[in-house]
């Protein structure tokens, strides 16, 4: 039996509003919109990203988060901040550095670059 990662789902209060950020961030398009309660975004080179409406507010740290990698971390971080993200933290380990950001709904994700 084989299994592949097909989609990552983010719970949020307003999927359509959050889709505005993630379509810009990932150069994605809305592939499905189910009355604004569940949306699926797709783009070349990755699994789908779903935004699912939930009634409760986001509290605390994400248990799972997205990690993106790039050859131009500073440029991508600036682009994402311009699109609505906020910088949460900067981290480095030997051979890699990453910026922790939050999307407009407070979901944390990272943008990393290897040395």
UniProtKB/TrEMBL annotation:
Signal peptide: none annotated. Residues 4-114 form the VOC domain. It comes from the Bacteria. InterPro entries: Glyas_Bleomycin-R_OHBP_Dase, Glyoxalase_6, VOC_core. PANTHER family: CONSERVED PROTEIN, HYPOTHETICAL FUSION PROTEIN. This is VOC family protein. It comes from Kibdelosporangium lantanae.
